[in-house]
Request: fold
Amino acid sequence: MEFLSKNKEVVYISVLGINFSLGKFEKLGVFDDETTDTLIKYLEKYNTEKIIFDCSSVVYKDDQKVFERFFNLVKYKDREIIFFNLEPELFERIKLDLKNSVFNYYVNTSQVQYFQSTEITSVGVNIEDGFGQISKDLKNNDIEILKRCAKDYNKTSYQLKSTSFWTNYFFDISTLFSESPRNILWIIARLCNRFRNIIRQDKSVLLISTSLYGTIISTLMKEVLNDSYKIETICFNRLGPDILINEVNIHRKDSYDYVIHVSDIIIGGTELKILKALLSLRKLSITHVFVIGMREAFKDNYFDSLIINSVLTTNEIYEDIYYTITKPELS
Amino acid sequence: MIHNILHISDIHFSSDDDSYLRDNQDDFLFELVNEIKSVESSVDYLFLTGDYVERSTWDGGSVVSALINKLEAALEIKQTFCVNGNHDLNNEGFSAEGYHMFRSTLKVIKPTFETDFFRATLLSENHWVFEFDCFSNGKREVNLKHEGVYKPLKDSQLKFFESFLIDYLLDSKQNIYLLSHLPVQVNPNSPLFDDLQWNDRHIWKDGHNILELITKHINVNLLLWFAGDGHVVESYKVPDLPYFYFLTGRFNGPIEKYGQYRERETAKEASCQFLRVDSVKSKVVRSIQFSTFQERYEQESFKWYSKSTDFINSTKFLNKFFSGSSKQEFINREITKSIGENKLYELVKATTKQKNISIGWIDINGLINQDNILKQFLECTSELLDMEYVDGYEDMIILGLGYWGSSIASFISLNKNIPMFSLKVRGCNLNEYSSLRKVIENKNIIIASDVVSSGETLDELREVLNIRDFSCLISVILNPLISDGLRGVDRIIYGSNQIALPILEREYLPDSIINSKYDFDKI
Reply:
């Protein structure tokens, strides 16, 4: 998947998608020299008049003046280049690199425009189609990846061990790591995108995980987001009746602005409920929940007064997925 | 200036016990020499750091002497350096004849400077070897007839050493190889510290003074300390030294009593390491530890080496291999410092294992949350892996042990595109892993863990997965107690190896202690 949409006039490219195709974990969502080189390659590959780089969820993290270098490279390309959906930090960085506060920047024969996400209408070209297509591509990629970790029990049905539901698909996140590690990278990036959109920067964040893969996901998120957030992580080795209260040892700080539960897939919410009860003993309450996948029922609904943020819902992955309390009768 | 050095210690040969060594010298030599020659054609210097025989009667001295002579010839060694150990002398007033005779058979050349307590030899310009004989004959408080006595250096002797340094080594940057039987540092919090039985025999208290004088007067380019006597499990790297190589015995030694409990003793087993030292770059460019795991104390037939090559593994400590890497040194220091400053280490708590209990608990949750420690560790690990696996990561699999081990594994997995599996370290279910056994067949396995304290989990894993060797072990904390005692691990990368976790065998502990998870104050 190239993460781009094109017609005769415009090519619309997701920079995050490009980053993903570069395959370096530490580069994901980061605009740096390597990203610049790749963008130039795309400029050379597609000869449309306009080329739009969607920088959604791409951050700046480099000591080099990457944009100055970029603009020098596109000087004589005779193109109209639009940076769109810029994160505030990246937006400011461009301004700094260009020593210019206007949105249009002419470098010899090329014109470069750059916009923050709020200025979508200022772009001046019909990007809605491109944007829609890219969103679809991104989501399809999510679905494709998560489908790889699902086991199909359509003919037999399967009872989940963690909660009392029967289902026809069982998701095993470990498959993502064992079969195609790069794919989990994408999922983490997508989860971090949601995180960035919701959680304010420069606030103290505690990520709490209660399962093996929840811990892995929260640690990966911490490393991806570490530059913009003050994040601590904690995992509870086992969450159940035998957990010792003194294992809930989270008194590194008096309080956190955000206490976030991170998990892989949430179906019944049992773990979350136990965690809430345990944390209440320490006078902490969960403020947000971030997961890779969740049961459709949680979408746009409060669960125990919490909104669950998920990359996908289970129904988005499989339309025919069901969760029932009693064992379904199969024909 | 490049020097190839072979360091051997603690052979503890006994003609009664070691019929295998006596009868199979050639087998042993063949394997050892082959191992070394696979990386270097010859060795410049042989460093021997004591305890050549088990008993100072020197009944088997000739066997050891013949073995060393053969090594000297096979590896074309230019010169041998040799200091005594407590087992090489006795406290009944006998002369040190056996040891001196043994020494005279070796390729020992007259030192540049010699006094009653140390010898100094100038190898080449600004390259010195210091040999300290820590023991002499004489009465000792602890009644061990067959051991020599440690006599602390007098003030006059230390002053003499100081004036030697000023006279001979003051002017330019010096490279020093220091040999002593006893190691130098022990954690003052250790229960061993106050135990005379151990303290008197296994810690070189003068080591601190010697170090202080060297660092005070000499502009040191490179200082490598070669020591033996691996009893003192909590000896660890002296932070202020450029490098400090401490040679222990194996973890799988006999059980010895200290205090009211018994601890696995780590010595009485020969170990050796090969080092390629580049003094211009001021680092050790190659280090191979030859694991001489042996079972002579655990089996009735006392064999020094098994005939199988399993027991001569060469474990590469990648951190040491790249010990010029200031980043790794920095991480080692940072982790240790962070654990100390943030009180993330408690000696009285214990983690429970099947066979052993490690006294000491590290709050790995807390450590991971320290500023960027995990990130730096992972970056450094990633670099070391790339330098080692230059041909790429095909046919590799990474297994993460437990929560944090799995998190570490996930980074490496994503970064290098290596398939990864997570394992719960406790309660391995044979059926659960039957599919994994098929997947890992014929693969090179990297293990990622947070703390390796006794290595027992690795042994279990080896059994459960039916595999023999691991290609690499990555661990944030590696217990120095077993740091060179891990079997079947080709390469080791650690974040810190300075936090010692004493290991006690469960069977020697009262049930009340085993069953109380956190109430270890009684110890």
Observations:
- Residues 233-243, 248-268, 291-314, 517-523 of chain B have pLDDT under 50 and may be disordered.
- Chain B is about 30% helix and 25% strand.
